[in-house]
What does this fold into?
Amino acid sequence: MSFIAARPRHAARTCGFRSTRQCSAQHHYPSGINRTIDTWVTHSRLERYNAVLDDSIFPSDTSSRIRETVRSKKSEQALAQLGDLIHDAGDLRIALDEFVSKRSVKGVRGVESLARKMDVLGCDRGSGVDLWFALIAAYGRLGRLNSVSRCFKFARTTGRWFGGEKDVIYTNQFLHALHSDTQRLFVRFRQFMQEGAVLDTGSFNVLLKSCMKEGDTRRAKMVLSWMSEQRQQPDGISYSTLIKIFSYGNNFDGVLYVMDLMDINGFTPTDEVLSNLLVACGSACQHDTALMIWRDIKRARGNEPMPLPLYESMMISCNQASHGERSLELLDEMKEHGLVPTVKAYNLALSACRAQPGKRSRPIDLINAINIFSEMKVKNVCLDQFTYGQLFEISADAEQGQIASWLHKSMVLDNIRPNVIISTSLMKAYIRGGMVDEAMSLFRKMIWGPATLKPTGATYRTLAKELRERCHVPEALQIYTAMRKAKFAPNNIEFQKLISAAAETAFSSGDAHLQQEVAQLCRISSLSTIDLHGTSRYEARAAVLCVLGMIVTEYRQRNKAPGPLTIIVGRGGHSEDNKPVLGSVVRSMLVDLLRFNLDDTEDEAEELQPILRKEGRIVIPSTVLLEWLQGHKG
It folds into this structure.
């Protein structure tokens, strides 16, 4: 009620009381409450008036207190206090929903225990059954399928579920709780059909939803045959889900089969079904089919305006099929028909401005994106994270770091919080635009920032690749080092190429600091032995170059003759037919790239080949190293 929102305690602080009647008239309380206030205000202290007002006139809302208790306290503490707040099944349902929102299995079990103590679950048909199946749904959302089966078994054995027509809603709730486990769901569904339980179209839609998660077209066809046996006709949800299943399974022929099935059954496609059809055509790059469906939709509607979701679905289809210009035309078309584009439509238009796969970015793409962004600003469209993420990607494609910086300032003014994806796109735009310092500064903020902004494996891979390709090897190594500290596995080919590039840079430039960093990453601890077990070809190349570079540095600084160098190539996972593949790779590099004279004398060749073949190692004599150093120095 309106008088509850304007509480006299706050009014007393702002306007002051000259008389009780003035206050009562000002806030327009009902007459009975005004008389009560007149009586209370006769007390000398305003605090006593406030206390009586809070406790007597405005009693606390039980449901709000339950929600606040569950949200603000740990599960154990909340359960301890809920005993005094919960009085019926409705209160238990509120607490149950809040614990599910917190993903608290302990809280859901506590509500079940509390319901048993209150004997609410023992009620006959009605609230007791509703609460039982609410518990089943809660356990299903939390992935506790054994608890789902246990609760359903109890409900069945105690006569709260009979499988009749009145129980269909509970049957579907139970099936939906099991939908995350497709195998268990189908086994239980077969049991229901064998037992003669009443099933409706919604029951079969649960099966189709489970198939959609894995793109299981085989089971989807089985569900269709079961629906035919049970004489259940698919509805709009069924057809939409079937289209998604075949689309996710990369089976466009199945999508066409669903279209034929709708014609056979005389089903008029709903807007949702048509939207899914258009998107499925785009996923399969069947743009001609999408255009045919689009023309049929427009012809069937005549002068009736096309709904906005259909325009958005067609834009998605065009973007997926790499027809971005057609997507921009659809944006203009919907505005010509008087439709107000949503932020989703504008974001799809921005996606259309990105460079198409296999093509270079064009200046017009960036111009179109900035124009769309300006239009969104003028029309006060609520921009979101996806909007700025697309703009940063377009700026990166155009190698315009300054524009990305300007967009970032606008994002801060719009009070839009960045996420890892947005920050990664922004750093990529900075690097491509020559603003490496800004990119590294943002990266350090992510490292030391909140947990939600910590770099992911994709972030490390993207930054390392961009920095390496633009010859910023020291900065790329910083990214690599941070990746190792964050315990990301160095199994990506990009990082292996990075180490190799860093080693070659250090070798050619003689940078001692860079050599030390590469040595640390390659775990090199000696200048006389290199163990290449468990390394890839890129890492093996980097390790050898690093050690040779360090030998060169030491020879130049101290004029000290080197000792023999042993390179253990091993066999392991990089061998083929039990032959040390790395041995031939390293030896080829030493001979072809570095011009080592390993085969100058017949004795050396005979000495090296048996060692390489039998023991999986290459030994470079000190005389060969010294000769190479003198030539390298010259």
